[in-house]
Amino acid sequence: MGLSFDPDTLPLPIGHFIGGELVAAPGEIRMCRPSDGKAYAGCPIAGPDLVEQAIQSAKAALKASNWAGVRPRERVRVLHAWADLIEAEADTLARIEALSSTRLINQLVGGDIAVTAEQIRFFAEFADKEGSDVVPTDDATFGMILSEPYGIVGAITPWNFPVSMAGWKLGPALAAGNAVVLKPSEMTPFSTVYLAELAIRAGLPAGLFNVVLGDGLTTGTALTGHPEIAKVSFTGSTRAGSAIMENIARSGIKPVTLELGGKSPQIVFKDADLSKAADAIVGSLLFNAGQACVAATRVIVEASVADQFTEALVARMTDISPGPTWDEATRYSPIISERQRDRIDAIVGAAIENGGRCVTGGKPMDRQGYFYEPTLLTDLDQSSPAILEEIFGPVLTLQTFKDEEEAMALADHPTYGLAAGLFTSDLSRTIRLSRQLQAGTIWVNRYSRSRDHILPTGGYKRSGIGKDLGREAYLANRKTKSVLISL
Ligand code: NAD
User: Fold this and answer.
1) Which of 138, 164, 330, 466 would be a feasible disulfide site paired with 323, CB 3.0-4.6 Å?
2) 455 C-alpha vs ligand 1 centroid, how far in Å?
3) Where are the alpha helices (DSSP H) in 335-443?
4) Which portions of the chain are predicted below pLDDT 50?
5) What atom of ligand 1 comes closest to residue 457's alpha carbon?
Protein backbone atom coordinates (compact mmCIF):
# COMPACT_ATOMS: atom_id res chain seq x y z
CA MET A 1 0.00 0.00 0.00
CA GLY A 2 3.02 2.33 0.23
CA LEU A 3 2.12 5.70 1.70
CA SER A 4 -1.61 5.57 0.87
CA PHE A 5 -3.76 5.03 3.95
CA ASP A 6 -7.31 4.52 5.17
CA PRO A 7 -8.52 7.91 6.49
CA ASP A 8 -11.20 6.30 8.67
CA THR A 9 -8.79 4.38 10.88
CA LEU A 10 -5.90 6.83 11.32
CA PRO A 11 -5.27 7.62 15.02
CA LEU A 12 -5.01 11.37 15.72
CA PRO A 13 -3.45 13.19 18.70
CA ILE A 14 -6.53 15.26 19.56
CA GLY A 15 -5.80 17.75 22.32
CA HIS A 16 -3.55 20.57 23.39
CA PHE A 17 0.07 19.78 24.21
CA ILE A 18 1.30 21.41 27.40
CA GLY A 19 4.24 20.59 29.67
CA GLY A 20 5.20 17.58 27.58
CA GLU A 21 1.76 15.99 27.69
CA LEU A 22 -1.30 15.70 25.51
CA VAL A 23 -4.14 17.53 27.25
CA ALA A 24 -7.33 15.93 25.98
CA ALA A 25 -10.23 18.32 25.43
CA PRO A 26 -13.63 18.09 23.76
CA GLY A 27 -13.72 18.97 20.08
CA GLU A 28 -15.66 22.18 19.55
CA ILE A 29 -14.94 23.17 15.96
CA ARG A 30 -16.31 20.71 13.42
CA MET A 31 -13.58 19.49 11.08
CA CYS A 32 -14.27 18.05 7.62
CA ARG A 33 -11.79 16.33 5.33
CA PRO A 34 -11.21 18.50 2.23
CA SER A 35 -10.82 15.39 0.08
CA ASP A 36 -14.32 13.99 0.64
CA GLY A 37 -16.15 16.48 2.89
CA LYS A 38 -16.61 13.90 5.65
CA ALA A 39 -16.68 15.22 9.24
CA TYR A 40 -13.99 13.34 11.17
CA ALA A 41 -13.04 15.26 14.35
CA GLY A 42 -13.54 18.39 16.39
CA CYS A 43 -10.88 20.94 17.22
CA PRO A 44 -10.78 21.91 20.92
CA ILE A 45 -10.65 25.60 21.80
CA ALA A 46 -8.20 26.80 24.45
CA GLY A 47 -9.64 29.70 26.42
CA PRO A 48 -7.53 32.27 28.30
CA ASP A 49 -7.04 29.86 31.25
CA LEU A 50 -5.45 27.17 29.16
CA VAL A 51 -3.35 29.71 27.25
CA GLU A 52 -2.18 30.98 30.65
CA GLN A 53 -1.31 27.42 31.69
CA ALA A 54 0.73 26.90 28.49
CA ILE A 55 2.61 30.17 29.03
CA GLN A 56 3.35 29.39 32.69
CA SER A 57 4.55 25.93 31.66
CA ALA A 58 6.89 27.53 29.10
CA LYS A 59 8.16 29.99 31.70
CA ALA A 60 8.86 27.21 34.21
CA ALA A 61 10.56 25.12 31.52
CA LEU A 62 12.84 27.98 30.49
CA LYS A 63 13.93 28.34 34.10
CA ALA A 64 14.28 24.65 34.96
CA SER A 65 16.16 23.73 31.77
CA ASN A 66 18.19 26.95 31.54
CA TRP A 67 17.57 26.61 27.78
CA ALA A 68 18.85 30.12 27.11
CA GLY A 69 21.97 29.62 29.18
CA VAL A 70 23.11 26.06 28.42
CA ARG A 71 26.09 25.49 26.19
CA PRO A 72 24.66 26.44 22.76
CA ARG A 73 25.93 23.16 21.32
CA GLU A 74 23.45 21.40 23.63
CA ARG A 75 20.59 23.20 21.90
CA VAL A 76 22.07 22.11 18.57
CA ARG A 77 22.22 18.50 19.77
CA VAL A 78 18.58 18.41 20.89
CA LEU A 79 17.28 20.10 17.74
CA HIS A 80 19.27 17.72 15.52
CA ALA A 81 17.81 14.76 17.44
CA TRP A 82 14.34 16.21 16.87
CA ALA A 83 15.01 16.61 13.13
CA ASP A 84 16.23 12.99 12.98
CA LEU A 85 13.05 11.80 14.69
CA ILE A 86 10.86 13.85 12.34
CA GLU A 87 12.53 12.03 9.46
CA ALA A 88 12.20 8.65 11.17
CA GLU A 89 8.49 9.26 11.81
CA ALA A 90 7.86 11.00 8.49
CA ASP A 91 5.22 8.48 7.34
CA THR A 92 3.08 8.95 10.47
CA LEU A 93 3.49 12.72 10.46
CA ALA A 94 2.67 12.86 6.74
CA ARG A 95 -0.51 10.82 7.21
CA ILE A 96 -1.79 13.09 9.98
CA GLU A 97 -1.00 16.11 7.79
CA ALA A 98 -2.61 14.66 4.66
CA LEU A 99 -5.81 13.67 6.47
CA SER A 100 -6.78 17.17 7.60
CA SER A 101 -5.13 19.39 5.06
CA THR A 102 -4.81 19.78 1.31
CA ARG A 103 -1.26 18.45 1.24
CA LEU A 104 -0.77 15.29 -0.80
CA ILE A 105 0.68 12.24 0.88
CA ASN A 106 3.08 11.75 -2.04
CA GLN A 107 4.51 15.26 -1.65
CA LEU A 108 4.85 15.24 2.11
CA VAL A 109 7.47 12.68 3.06
CA GLY A 110 10.16 13.79 0.61
CA GLY A 111 8.85 17.37 0.49
CA ASP A 112 7.33 19.29 3.40
CA ILE A 113 8.49 16.89 6.13
CA ALA A 114 12.03 16.36 4.81
CA VAL A 115 12.42 20.10 4.30
CA THR A 116 11.14 20.83 7.82
CA ALA A 117 13.74 18.50 9.34
CA GLU A 118 16.41 20.11 7.19
CA GLN A 119 15.34 23.61 8.23
CA ILE A 120 15.36 22.72 11.93
CA ARG A 121 18.97 21.56 11.48
CA PHE A 122 19.75 24.70 9.50
CA PHE A 123 18.52 26.96 12.32
CA ALA A 124 20.08 24.81 15.05
CA GLU A 125 23.48 25.51 13.51
CA PHE A 126 23.19 29.23 14.24
CA ALA A 127 22.98 28.56 17.98
CA ASP A 128 26.73 28.33 18.54
CA LYS A 129 27.83 30.58 15.69
CA GLU A 130 25.81 33.78 16.03
CA GLY A 131 26.47 35.69 19.22
CA SER A 132 27.37 38.90 20.91
CA ASP A 133 29.86 41.47 19.59
CA VAL A 134 32.63 43.57 21.07
CA VAL A 135 32.48 46.92 19.32
CA PRO A 136 35.09 49.62 18.67
CA THR A 137 35.06 52.36 21.32
CA ASP A 138 37.84 54.58 22.72
CA ASP A 139 40.59 53.32 25.06
CA ALA A 140 38.76 54.45 28.18
CA THR A 141 35.70 52.29 27.54
CA PHE A 142 34.75 48.77 26.55
CA GLY A 143 31.63 48.34 24.47
CA MET A 144 29.62 45.16 23.86
CA ILE A 145 26.42 44.28 22.10
CA LEU A 146 24.96 41.36 24.03
CA SER A 147 22.54 39.12 22.14
CA GLU A 148 19.80 37.42 24.16
CA PRO A 149 16.67 35.40 23.47
CA TYR A 150 13.29 37.06 24.03
CA GLY A 151 11.83 34.46 26.39
CA ILE A 152 8.48 33.06 25.26
CA VAL A 153 7.55 33.42 21.61
CA GLY A 154 3.88 33.18 20.64
CA ALA A 155 3.52 31.61 17.20
CA ILE A 156 0.43 31.29 15.02
CA THR A 157 0.33 29.28 11.80
CA PRO A 158 -2.08 28.83 8.85
CA TRP A 159 -3.61 25.68 7.36
CA ASN A 160 -1.92 25.58 3.96
CA PHE A 161 1.42 24.02 4.98
CA PRO A 162 0.88 23.23 8.67
CA VAL A 163 4.10 21.30 9.41
CA SER A 164 6.37 23.52 7.29
CA MET A 165 4.96 26.73 8.72
CA ALA A 166 5.37 25.40 12.26
CA GLY A 167 8.99 24.51 11.41
CA TRP A 168 9.64 28.05 10.14
CA LYS A 169 8.62 29.40 13.54
CA LEU A 170 9.99 26.71 15.85
CA GLY A 171 13.44 26.19 14.33
CA PRO A 172 14.79 29.72 14.80
CA ALA A 173 12.90 30.44 18.05
CA LEU A 174 14.11 27.32 19.88
CA ALA A 175 17.63 27.45 18.44
CA ALA A 176 17.88 31.05 19.64
CA GLY A 177 17.09 29.96 23.21
CA ASN A 178 13.39 30.81 23.47
CA ALA A 179 10.36 28.74 24.48
CA VAL A 180 7.40 28.64 22.08
CA VAL A 181 3.64 28.48 22.56
CA LEU A 182 2.16 27.75 19.16
CA LYS A 183 -1.44 27.94 17.97
CA PRO A 184 -1.90 26.06 14.70
CA SER A 185 -4.87 26.65 12.42
CA GLU A 186 -8.10 25.21 13.78
CA MET A 187 -8.50 23.44 10.44
CA THR A 188 -5.23 21.49 10.57
CA PRO A 189 -3.95 21.31 14.17
CA PHE A 190 -3.01 17.67 14.79
CA SER A 191 0.26 17.41 12.84
CA THR A 192 1.63 20.24 15.00
CA VAL A 193 0.64 18.35 18.14
CA TYR A 194 2.47 15.31 16.82
CA LEU A 195 5.54 17.51 16.11
CA ALA A 196 5.48 18.49 19.79
CA GLU A 197 5.29 14.84 20.87
CA LEU A 198 8.33 14.10 18.72
CA ALA A 199 10.21 17.05 20.23
CA ILE A 200 9.72 15.62 23.72
CA ARG A 201 10.82 12.17 22.57
CA ALA A 202 13.94 13.79 21.07
CA GLY A 203 14.87 15.30 24.44
CA LEU A 204 13.49 18.84 24.25
CA PRO A 205 12.72 19.80 27.86
CA ALA A 206 8.97 19.48 28.53
CA GLY A 207 7.19 22.84 28.34
CA LEU A 208 9.62 24.51 25.94
CA PHE A 209 7.24 23.87 23.05
CA ASN A 210 3.55 23.93 23.93
CA VAL A 211 0.65 23.76 21.52
CA VAL A 212 -2.72 25.36 22.21
CA LEU A 213 -5.57 24.57 19.84
CA GLY A 214 -8.39 26.89 18.99
CA ASP A 215 -9.64 29.66 16.76
CA GLY A 216 -8.14 33.08 16.16
CA LEU A 217 -10.64 35.07 18.11
CA THR A 218 -10.47 33.16 21.41
CA THR A 219 -7.13 31.36 21.53
CA GLY A 220 -5.17 33.57 19.12
CA THR A 221 -6.23 36.79 20.86
CA ALA A 222 -5.42 35.40 24.32
CA LEU A 223 -1.98 34.32 23.10
CA THR A 224 -0.87 37.42 21.22
CA GLY A 225 -2.17 39.79 23.90
CA HIS A 226 -0.62 37.98 26.86
CA PRO A 227 1.92 40.19 28.65
CA GLU A 228 4.40 37.32 29.09
CA ILE A 229 4.54 36.59 25.37
CA ALA A 230 7.65 38.58 24.47
CA LYS A 231 7.41 38.30 20.70
CA VAL A 232 4.78 37.19 18.21
CA SER A 233 5.52 35.33 15.01
CA PHE A 234 2.53 34.98 12.68
CA THR A 235 1.83 33.51 9.28
CA GLY A 236 -1.60 33.94 7.76
CA SER A 237 -3.84 36.45 6.04
CA THR A 238 -3.25 40.20 5.96
CA ARG A 239 -6.65 40.64 7.65
CA ALA A 240 -5.62 38.51 10.66
CA GLY A 241 -2.19 40.17 10.69
CA SER A 242 -3.87 43.56 11.11
CA ALA A 243 -6.08 42.22 13.92
CA ILE A 244 -3.01 40.85 15.69
CA MET A 245 -1.15 44.16 15.45
CA GLU A 246 -4.21 45.91 16.82
CA ASN A 247 -4.46 43.49 19.73
CA ILE A 248 -0.77 43.85 20.50
CA ALA A 249 -0.99 47.63 20.36
CA ARG A 250 -3.95 47.57 22.74
CA SER A 251 -2.51 45.09 25.21
CA GLY A 252 1.14 46.14 25.25
CA ILE A 253 4.07 46.58 22.91
CA LYS A 254 6.10 43.69 21.52
CA PRO A 255 7.88 42.84 18.29
CA VAL A 256 5.86 40.99 15.71
CA THR A 257 6.86 39.13 12.58
CA LEU A 258 4.08 38.91 10.02
CA GLU A 259 4.15 36.67 6.96
CA LEU A 260 0.97 37.59 5.14
CA GLY A 261 -0.90 37.30 1.88
CA GLY A 262 0.17 37.96 -1.68
CA LYS A 263 -0.96 38.37 -5.26
CA SER A 264 2.27 37.74 -7.06
CA PRO A 265 2.89 38.73 -10.70
CA GLN A 266 4.80 36.65 -13.25
CA ILE A 267 6.17 38.79 -16.08
CA VAL A 268 6.92 36.85 -19.26
CA PHE A 269 8.96 38.49 -22.04
CA LYS A 270 8.97 37.11 -25.57
CA ASP A 271 12.70 36.34 -25.31
CA ALA A 272 12.07 33.83 -22.47
CA ASP A 273 12.03 30.07 -22.89
CA LEU A 274 8.23 30.04 -23.08
CA SER A 275 7.86 26.35 -22.51
CA LYS A 276 9.90 26.46 -19.32
CA ALA A 277 8.04 29.59 -18.19
CA ALA A 278 4.68 27.83 -18.67
CA ASP A 279 5.98 24.79 -16.73
CA ALA A 280 7.10 26.98 -13.85
CA ILE A 281 3.94 29.08 -13.66
CA VAL A 282 1.47 26.21 -13.96
CA GLY A 283 3.60 24.08 -11.63
CA SER A 284 3.25 26.79 -8.99
CA LEU A 285 -0.47 27.25 -9.64
CA LEU A 286 -1.26 23.54 -9.35
CA PHE A 287 0.94 23.02 -6.30
CA ASN A 288 -1.50 22.70 -3.39
CA ALA A 289 -4.18 23.92 -5.85
CA GLY A 290 -2.91 27.48 -5.64
CA GLN A 291 -3.21 27.58 -1.85
CA ALA A 292 0.25 28.99 -1.30
CA CYS A 293 1.09 32.54 -0.26
CA VAL A 294 3.52 32.90 -3.16
CA ALA A 295 1.37 31.03 -5.70
CA ALA A 296 1.63 32.12 -9.31
CA THR A 297 -1.58 34.06 -9.83
CA ARG A 298 -1.05 36.97 -12.24
CA VAL A 299 0.59 36.28 -15.59
CA ILE A 300 1.65 39.42 -17.44
CA VAL A 301 2.87 38.39 -20.87
CA GLU A 302 4.30 40.30 -23.84
CA ALA A 303 1.41 40.80 -26.29
CA SER A 304 3.17 39.35 -29.36
CA VAL A 305 3.46 35.89 -27.71
CA ALA A 306 0.27 35.98 -25.65
CA ASP A 307 -1.78 33.55 -27.79
CA GLN A 308 1.03 31.04 -27.96
CA PHE A 309 1.65 31.35 -24.21
CA THR A 310 -2.04 31.01 -23.37
CA GLU A 311 -2.13 27.73 -25.29
CA ALA A 312 0.93 26.47 -23.42
CA LEU A 313 -0.68 27.35 -20.08
CA VAL A 314 -3.99 25.68 -20.89
CA ALA A 315 -2.33 22.46 -22.06
CA ARG A 316 -0.60 22.17 -18.70
CA MET A 317 -3.60 23.28 -16.62
CA THR A 318 -5.82 20.55 -18.00
CA ASP A 319 -3.33 17.77 -17.29
CA ILE A 320 -4.17 17.07 -13.64
CA SER A 321 -4.94 14.02 -11.49
CA PRO A 322 -7.25 15.08 -8.66
CA GLY A 323 -7.98 12.67 -5.84
CA PRO A 324 -7.93 12.24 -2.09
CA THR A 325 -4.86 13.56 -0.30
CA TRP A 326 -4.33 10.11 1.22
CA ASP A 327 -3.99 8.35 -2.15
CA GLU A 328 -0.44 8.16 -3.43
CA ALA A 329 -1.62 8.46 -7.05
CA THR A 330 -3.18 11.93 -6.51
CA ARG A 331 -1.42 14.91 -8.06
CA TYR A 332 -3.99 17.68 -7.56
CA SER A 333 -5.26 18.88 -4.16
CA PRO A 334 -8.75 19.81 -2.99
CA ILE A 335 -9.58 23.25 -1.59
CA ILE A 336 -9.40 23.42 2.21
CA SER A 337 -13.13 23.94 2.87
CA GLU A 338 -16.50 24.23 1.22
CA ARG A 339 -16.63 27.89 2.22
CA GLN A 340 -13.28 28.67 0.60
CA ARG A 341 -14.26 26.76 -2.56
CA ASP A 342 -17.46 28.80 -2.77
CA ARG A 343 -15.51 32.03 -2.26
CA ILE A 344 -13.20 31.14 -5.17
CA ASP A 345 -16.22 30.38 -7.32
CA ALA A 346 -17.87 33.68 -6.40
CA ILE A 347 -14.78 35.72 -7.42
CA VAL A 348 -14.46 33.80 -10.70
CA GLY A 349 -18.21 34.15 -11.39
CA ALA A 350 -18.13 37.90 -10.78
CA ALA A 351 -15.08 38.30 -13.05
CA ILE A 352 -16.90 36.53 -15.90
CA GLU A 353 -20.09 38.50 -15.32
CA ASN A 354 -18.08 41.70 -15.56
CA GLY A 355 -16.65 40.90 -18.98
CA GLY A 356 -13.76 38.60 -18.13
CA ARG A 357 -13.19 35.58 -20.38
CA CYS A 358 -12.75 32.17 -18.83
CA VAL A 359 -10.30 30.29 -21.07
CA THR A 360 -10.33 27.11 -19.04
CA GLY A 361 -11.89 25.90 -15.78
CA GLY A 362 -14.22 28.27 -13.96
CA LYS A 363 -16.22 25.95 -11.72
CA PRO A 364 -16.10 23.42 -8.88
CA MET A 365 -15.25 19.89 -10.00
CA ASP A 366 -18.05 17.41 -10.24
CA ARG A 367 -16.69 15.03 -7.64
CA GLN A 368 -16.67 14.34 -3.90
CA GLY A 369 -14.73 16.85 -1.78
CA TYR A 370 -13.98 20.51 -2.39
CA PHE A 371 -12.11 20.45 -5.70
CA TYR A 372 -11.96 23.42 -8.07
CA GLU A 373 -10.92 23.38 -11.71
CA PRO A 374 -7.64 25.09 -12.61
CA THR A 375 -8.92 28.33 -14.07
CA LEU A 376 -7.50 30.88 -16.49
CA LEU A 377 -9.17 34.29 -16.79
CA THR A 378 -8.33 36.96 -19.38
CA ASP A 379 -9.75 40.31 -20.58
CA LEU A 380 -9.88 41.74 -17.06
CA ASP A 381 -9.09 45.29 -16.19
CA GLN A 382 -6.60 46.23 -13.50
CA SER A 383 -9.31 47.10 -10.97
CA SER A 384 -11.05 43.70 -11.16
CA PRO A 385 -11.23 41.86 -7.81
CA ALA A 386 -9.83 38.79 -9.62
CA ILE A 387 -6.66 40.83 -10.29
CA LEU A 388 -6.51 42.56 -6.92
CA GLU A 389 -7.73 40.07 -4.32
CA GLU A 390 -5.80 37.10 -3.02
CA ILE A 391 -8.04 34.26 -4.25
CA PHE A 392 -6.05 31.47 -2.62
CA GLY A 393 -7.05 28.87 -5.15
CA PRO A 394 -6.10 27.57 -8.62
CA VAL A 395 -7.01 30.74 -10.49
CA LEU A 396 -4.62 32.45 -12.87
CA THR A 397 -5.27 35.74 -14.61
CA LEU A 398 -3.52 36.75 -17.80
CA GLN A 399 -2.84 40.32 -18.96
CA THR A 400 -0.70 41.54 -21.84
CA PHE A 401 1.86 44.33 -22.23
CA LYS A 402 3.57 46.11 -25.10
CA ASP A 403 6.69 47.40 -23.34
CA GLU A 404 8.66 47.07 -20.13
CA GLU A 405 7.07 50.13 -18.57
CA GLU A 406 3.57 48.80 -19.07
CA ALA A 407 4.63 45.39 -17.70
CA MET A 408 5.96 46.99 -14.53
CA ALA A 409 2.86 49.14 -14.07
CA LEU A 410 0.64 46.04 -14.31
CA ALA A 411 2.91 44.04 -11.99
CA ASP A 412 2.86 46.63 -9.23
CA HIS A 413 0.11 45.74 -6.77
CA PRO A 414 -1.35 48.53 -4.61
CA THR A 415 -1.07 46.54 -1.37
CA TYR A 416 0.71 43.19 -1.80
CA GLY A 417 4.41 42.58 -2.43
CA LEU A 418 5.24 39.01 -1.47
CA ALA A 419 6.90 37.52 -4.56
CA ALA A 420 7.33 38.12 -8.28
CA GLY A 421 8.47 36.05 -11.24
CA LEU A 422 10.50 37.29 -14.18
CA PHE A 423 10.97 35.24 -17.34
CA THR A 424 13.52 36.63 -19.80
CA SER A 425 16.89 35.79 -21.33
CA ASP A 426 18.10 39.41 -21.15
CA LEU A 427 20.59 39.76 -18.30
CA SER A 428 20.47 43.55 -18.10
CA ARG A 429 16.69 43.50 -17.93
CA THR A 430 16.83 40.83 -15.23
CA ILE A 431 18.94 43.01 -12.99
CA ARG A 432 17.12 46.24 -13.83
CA LEU A 433 13.67 44.78 -13.10
CA SER A 434 14.77 42.78 -10.05
CA ARG A 435 15.76 46.13 -8.56
CA GLN A 436 12.47 47.75 -9.49
CA LEU A 437 10.02 45.02 -8.46
CA GLN A 438 8.44 45.72 -5.09
CA ALA A 439 8.42 42.22 -3.62
CA GLY A 440 10.32 40.33 -0.93
CA THR A 441 11.25 37.45 -3.25
CA ILE A 442 12.04 37.62 -6.96
CA TRP A 443 12.37 34.41 -8.95
CA VAL A 444 13.98 34.65 -12.37
CA ASN A 445 13.35 31.91 -14.95
CA ARG A 446 11.83 29.77 -12.18
CA TYR A 447 8.88 30.11 -9.87
CA SER A 448 9.53 28.05 -6.77
CA ARG A 449 11.58 27.93 -3.62
CA SER A 450 14.79 25.94 -3.51
CA ARG A 451 16.23 24.22 -0.46
CA ASP A 452 18.63 27.13 0.11
CA HIS A 453 17.22 28.03 3.51
CA ILE A 454 19.69 30.89 3.81
CA LEU A 455 17.45 32.96 1.52
CA PRO A 456 15.01 34.88 3.75
CA THR A 457 11.35 35.00 2.81
CA GLY A 458 8.89 37.75 3.64
CA GLY A 459 6.78 40.48 2.17
CA TYR A 460 6.97 44.07 1.04
CA LYS A 461 3.96 46.37 1.59
CA ARG A 462 1.04 44.66 3.36
CA SER A 463 2.45 41.21 2.63
CA GLY A 464 4.29 41.37 5.90
CA ILE A 465 6.90 42.58 8.33
CA GLY A 466 10.16 40.76 8.97
CA LYS A 467 11.43 37.50 7.53
CA ASP A 468 11.14 33.77 7.97
CA LEU A 469 14.08 31.59 6.93
CA GLY A 470 17.63 32.84 6.52
CA ARG A 471 19.91 34.38 9.08
CA GLU A 472 17.36 37.16 9.54
CA ALA A 473 14.81 34.74 11.00
CA TYR A 474 17.32 33.53 13.58
CA LEU A 475 18.35 37.06 14.53
CA ALA A 476 14.69 38.11 14.79
CA ASN A 477 14.38 35.67 17.68
CA ARG A 478 17.05 37.46 19.71
CA LYS A 479 17.21 40.96 21.07
CA THR A 480 20.33 43.01 21.70
CA LYS A 481 21.56 44.97 24.66
CA SER A 482 24.34 47.57 24.46
CA VAL A 483 26.82 47.53 27.33
CA LEU A 484 29.38 50.31 27.80
CA ILE A 485 31.97 49.94 30.55
CA SER A 486 34.20 52.78 31.76
CA LEU A 487 37.62 51.30 32.37
P1 NAD B 1 -5.88 33.16 8.55
O2 NAD B 1 -5.29 34.51 8.70
O3 NAD B 1 -7.34 33.03 8.43
O4 NAD B 1 -5.45 32.25 9.77
C5 NAD B 1 -4.09 32.03 10.09
C6 NAD B 1 -3.97 31.72 11.56
O7 NAD B 1 -4.29 32.89 12.30
C8 NAD B 1 -4.92 30.65 12.06
O9 NAD B 1 -4.24 29.87 13.03
C10 NAD B 1 -6.04 31.45 12.68
O11 NAD B 1 -6.74 30.75 13.67
C12 NAD B 1 -5.27 32.61 13.26
N13 NAD B 1 -6.02 33.85 13.47
C14 NAD B 1 -7.03 34.35 12.74
N15 NAD B 1 -7.44 35.53 13.26
C16 NAD B 1 -6.66 35.77 14.34
C17 NAD B 1 -6.62 36.82 15.30
N18 NAD B 1 -7.43 37.85 15.24
N19 NAD B 1 -5.69 36.74 16.28
C20 NAD B 1 -4.84 35.70 16.35
N21 NAD B 1 -4.86 34.67 15.49
C22 NAD B 1 -5.75 34.70 14.47
O23 NAD B 1 -5.12 32.49 7.31
P24 NAD B 1 -5.34 31.06 6.67
O25 NAD B 1 -6.60 31.08 5.89
O26 NAD B 1 -5.13 30.01 7.71
O27 NAD B 1 -4.07 30.96 5.70
C28 NAD B 1 -4.05 31.52 4.44
C29 NAD B 1 -3.36 32.88 4.48
O30 NAD B 1 -2.04 32.71 4.97
C31 NAD B 1 -3.21 33.48 3.09
O32 NAD B 1 -3.48 34.85 3.14
C33 NAD B 1 -1.74 33.24 2.77
O34 NAD B 1 -1.19 34.12 1.82
C35 NAD B 1 -1.11 33.38 4.11
N36 NAD B 1 0.21 32.72 4.15
C37 NAD B 1 1.33 33.50 4.11
C38 NAD B 1 2.61 32.91 4.08
C39 NAD B 1 3.85 33.76 3.99
O40 NAD B 1 4.95 33.22 4.21
N41 NAD B 1 3.75 35.04 3.71
C42 NAD B 1 2.72 31.52 4.13
C43 NAD B 1 1.55 30.76 4.18
C44 NAD B 1 0.30 31.38 4.19
Assistant:
1) 330
2) 22
3) 338-353, 385-388, 404-411, 427-436
4) none
5) 40
